[in-house]
Amino acid sequence: MGKSLLYPGGVAVGHADMYGRGDIERMINNTGLLLQGRTGRAGLKKFRYVCDEEGELRALIPLLAEENPDWDRIWCLHGCRIDDRVYLYFVKVRMLETGPFPVNFEIAGSGLSVGSVRDLVFRRVRYHDTDLLWHWPAPAFASAVLLDSGEGWVYCFGVTRDAAGIQRCCLARVRPEDIEHIERYEYLVSRKPEWSPELDGAVTIFTDVPNELSVSFNRHLSQYLAVHSLGLTGVIVGRTAANPWGPWSDAVPLWKVAAAKHRWPYPQLIYAGKEHPELSEENGRVLYLTYIEFEEYFPHLVELTLA
């Protein structure tokens, strides 16, 4: 059947840490690179990886002493810079022994970490003796962060799955100076819009969105633009709205992934579609999108020009 990252030696990876298994020398659950340019292809040529003192890639949010790499994972979501601090939201998952895929997990919840812009060393924000600010099945904030300097709000988009299996996107907001205080977040409970400190009444702003997306103001469209994978179909879509809370348009296909079929015993998974607005050109007419094909497990880059 050939070689597979997720079936080293022909056996499913399972819950165990992949560090040093098969052809994998190192496995880091979350890391990053810094783009030093801010426009299109030119920006892609100027970057550096986030490394430790020895020049090796390092985790942005490392596991705590009580967390086990065979059972616990921290996956970064999105974030923003406020003054000299960088805020990075994350989701924590617990690995499962069995399931339909070579790697199976359940979401525990999501939280927030903060680090200095100088060294990007992050600490997790704790609330009531836990680093999970939102416990599943609450929406996992923040899959996308929109820092609106004009209105003075940080908008946080979070996704959950309802009892029918539908992925629902909800919206929270907080003042920049209060971002570390979970009790000061407000949630959209009506599209009028109305906001409440109570999460239970949060409304759905759109559906069929995995827990990764991007939201930005696109000057070419004079609208806010949300980009995400349409479920696991391999289609990357865009939606527009005049305000972060909507109403959001129906999903419009932007890109259809043409991935080679694999022969492994699980459904093909193509996900994590999103735009990187810091790279856009011509005021947002030229977009740069990425997505992940699970079997390969590295990002693909797409350049897209809007009509």
Outline of the structure:
The protein has 307 residues and is mostly beta strands. It contains 1 helix and 20 strands.
Task: Tell me the radius of gyration.
Answer: 19 Å
**Ends apart, CA distance between termini:** 43 Å
The share of residues in helices is: under 10%
CATH architecture: 5 Propeller
| Number of domain modules | 1
Number of helices: 1
> Averaged pLDDT, please?
91
What is the chain-wise order of helices and strands?
Answer: EHEEEEEEEEEEEEEEEEEEE
Output the CATH topology: Tachylectin-2, Chain A
Please state the overall shape, judged from the principal axes of the Cα atoms: globular
Q: What is the topology?
A:
Elements lengths: L32 E3 L4 H5 L2 E3 L22 E11 L2 E12 L7 E13 L5 E3 L9 E2 L4 E9 L4 E9 L5 E8 L11 E5 L3 E3 L9 E2 L6 E5 L4 E7 L5 E7 L10 E5 L13 E6 L10 E8 L5 E7 L2
Antiparallel strand pairs: 1-2, 3-4, 4-5, 5-6, 5-7, 8-9, 9-10, 10-11, 10-13, 11-12, 14-15, 15-16, 16-17, 18-19, 19-20
Describe it:
This protein is mainly β and 307 residues long. It has one domain (61-305): Tachylectin-2, Chain A, CATH 2.115.10. Helix content is 2%, strand content 42%. The protein is globular, with a radius of gyration of 19 Å.
Short key terms for the protein model shown above:
307 residues; mainly beta; Tachylectin-2, Chain A; six-stranded antiparallel beta sheet; 1 helix; 2% helix
